[in-house]
Specification:
The protein is of the alpha+beta class. It is 19% helix and 27% strand.
């Protein structure tokens, strides 16, 4: 349920502007319905909206009345709805309110992170679009193009073939190609190439309607492309129109996707299944929806047998801003028809990756990148070639490419097997794959904690000891559902950073930052949120980094100082067990005995100040909790709070260099593990 426009991400305004009028798309027992135009209240008065075709006028209160009567409500500005309908009509995509409602629930939110606050507070009206003449009159001098001076291998191709190929590429890719071939660089003389930029699915598709109304011979397409570059449009009404068009493109692609169902399915009882999946509930961990659904929408599971003469696997992904989602898998064999499961479409946002395999027996499964929303990317594992490159992109694009990759997804090798894989299981929602599994006739596929868990930011190296024998949340972490484990090396892989560690903070809502000598900002953090996010040390200087630094400055009384340069080290971690009969309020949820620390530190009774203790080789310790009395000893806590502390055992001869954490969504219970080296 969102109280912002699904297209532009802004609220309905309480003052006269284009943000004041709105429509409501809501669900009823008979299906999805669209309200008439409403207008927000301004200074306590109800201003009527313009009446067209006998439409009924609503005030903003209508939205809240509908919101109280149904769970599924989508809000759109009246102008944004008009643009969305126009873009769907240009792409010849039929408008079905029921299907549109389902896609609105899954739509990615508009990104305002990098927006100038002044524009955010007063965004321009996207319906006020300048004419083609107004756009091109500001710049009539085009840079000269150098004609190719010599021929190369591509010069033997007819010009029509070159145009046909290059018009399907982005302009930036064609600019790069000209460095490899001067013949390909001649495409910039072609008006046909520049005109293709303004197609419905082109880079300037938001101007498709405006250019379609004008004779093609009257437009200098190259000049128009130059005059509508992002740097020139920023902050204008056409720039805001482009943002809404980008959201509309997502609806166009997802609404036009075709579902592929295998003709024959494998028996679920004939194989031993190993699965990974996204979450089974909506974004609010307290607002659970029935299992077998996804964001309240039904999902479908398909099982297919792997053909004995398998020659390749094709993975289809859709790109949403800077992330990708797997939408379909296709198995190609030498003698049998190809088997495709999932959703496919022909669009620039859809990409297909194919990995060749020498035989079906060489296929060993997938390394999977996933988040609560589903499968982000896959790597095919083969006995002959090992792991393929990522089919999709799980890497955070905000991090400089020359640095170590930072993943915006959890990684797992649960679906990599040493035995033969005989079948695949694919679970889909309305347009993407939310779960995947492997089926084997042989049940020898054993569980290994390091390979089987969902890890962020990546799977820990084999040289690190996870001390899993002391981590009692293994059954839950490896059980059905989405249960990510977050880990951090505050001491580095070999402990070299321990001599620089100066403090850690333990009262933040979703992370434990670690501070180092002469560094005012945390270098690394232990993130124990439910969705993968990048650590502050990995983020560039964006609004997100600045806001997180401003919001998460720790209270000095909750900072635990460590004299790393002087040789002080964390040498022990203790976790507390609730005594039998204590904290009856949560007994039905957590059970009588469970290692725990609350995510918000507010669910415990006042007598329980914290349930994890960290101690150093100098006899100093801190308790993770919410009261300044945290420096009491374990003995006092056991006596006064009814707690029983247990030391996490580490591998003999190793030093503690990191932590990993597992947090359940239902009650935000945190389980802590120790990494040593």
């Amino acid at each position: 349920m969102r109280d912002c426009c699904i297209c532009c991400g802004l609220r309905v305004a309480d003052q006269p502007s284009w943000l004041e009028t709105f429509r409501v798309l809501y669900s009823t027992p008979e299906g999805a319905c669209l309200s008439d135009i409403g207008r927000g209240n301004w200074r306590g008065l109800s201003y009527p909206a313009p009446v067209h075709d006998g439409q009924t006028i609503h005030t903003r209160d209508f939205f809240w009345e509908v919101q109280d009567s149904t769970k599924t409500v989508v809000l759109l500005h009246a102008g944004c709805w008009t643009l969305l309908c126009q873009h769907l009509a240009d792409a010849e995509v039929p408008l079905c309110l029921d299907h549109l409602m389902e896609m609105c629930i899954l739509a990615p939110p508009p990104d305002w992170d990098s927006l100038d606050p002044q524009i955010f507070d007063n965004p321009p009206d996207p319906s006020i679009v300048p004419t083609i003449q107004q756009l091109t009159q500001s710049d009539t001098d085009l840079p000269c193009l150098a004609r190719p001076g010599h021929a190369d291998c591509f010069s033997v191709l007819p010009r029509e073939i070159i145009e046909m190929v290059l018009t399907r590429l982005l302009a930036v890719d064609v600019f790069h190609l000209r460095l490899a071939s001067r013949t390909l660089g001649s495409i910039f003389w072609s008006q046909t190439f520049w005109k293709s930029r303004f197609a419905v699915d082109g880079e300037r598709g938001f101007l498709h309607s405006a250019t379609a109304r004008k004779s093609a011979g009257q437009i200098n397409w190259r000049l128009l492309y130059r005059c509508t570059s992002p740097s020139r449009l920023y902050g204008s009404s056409l720039w805001n129109c482009k943002r809404i068009w980008e959201v509309s493109r997502w609806f166009i692609v997802t609404l036009s996707m075709a579902r592929r169902i295998p003709a024959a399915q494998a028996s679920p009882d004939a194989f031993h299944w190993t699965n990974v999946q996204g979450d089974d509930r909506d974004g609010d961990p307290w607002n659970c929806v029935p299992l077998g659904t996804y964001f309240g929408l039904p999902v479908a599971t398909y099982r297919i047998e792997i053909p004995p003469d398998l020659v390749s696997i094709t993975v289809t992904v859709i790109r949403e801003k800077d992330v990708t989602w797997v939408t379909a898998l296709q198995l190609l064999s030498a003698t049998h028809p190809a088997v495709c499961v999932g959703y496919i479409a022909q669009a620039p946002e859809i990409q297909h990756y194919t990995v060749a395999l020498p035989s079906a027996s060489s296929f060993q499964g997938f390394e999977v990148a996933l988040s609560s929303g589903g499968i982000r990317a896959l790597r095919v594992c083969s006995r002959s070639t090992g792991l393929s490159s990522w089919l999709g992109n799980p890497i955070d694009a905000r991090v400089a490419p020359q640095l170590e990759p930072v993943y915006r997804a959890c990684l797992t090798r649960r679906l990599v097997s040493t035995g033969d894989i005989d079948a695949l299981q694919v679970t889909c929602n309305m347009y993407r794959v939310v779960g995947i599994g492997i089926g084997q006739r042989d049940s020898s596929h054993r569980v290994d904690f390091r390979q089987q868990a969902l890890w962020h930011p990546c799977v820990p190296a084999s040289s690190l000891s996870l001390n899993e024998d002391s981590f009692e949340a293994i059954p839950a972490a490896l059980g059905p559902g989405y249960h990510p484990l977050y880990w951090v090396l505050f001491g580095g892989p070999d402990g070299h950073a321990l001599r620089e560690l100066t403090s850690l903070s333990f009262m933040l809502s979703s992370q434990i930052p670690f501070y180092y000598l002469h560094e005012p900002c945390p270098r690394v953090e232990l993130l124990f949120g439910y969705e993968p996010v990048s650590s502050l040390g990995d983020l560039p200087q964006t609004r997100e980094r600045r806001s997180r630094l401003a919001d998460d400055l720790p209270d000095p009384k909750y900072v635990f100082r460590i004299d790393g340069p002087g040789g002080e080290r964390i040498d022990a971690v203790y976790v507390a067990e609730m005594a039998e009969g204590n904290n009856r309020r949560y007994a039905d949820v957590w059970g009588p005995r469970r290692y725990m620390v609350c995510h918000y530190m507010l669910l415990f009774p006042a007598t329980a100040n914290g349930h994890i203790q960290i101690s150093t080789n100098r006899g100093r310790f801190c308790r993770l909790g919410r009261h300044p009395t945290r420096f009491r000893s374990r003995q006092e806590a056991e006596a006064n709070d009814g707690l029983s502390f247990t030391k996490i055992q580490t591998t003999p001869g190793t030093t503690i260099v990191g932590f990993y954490a597992f947090k359940t969504a239902e009650c935000s219970v945190l389980h802590l593990g120790v990494i040593s080296s």
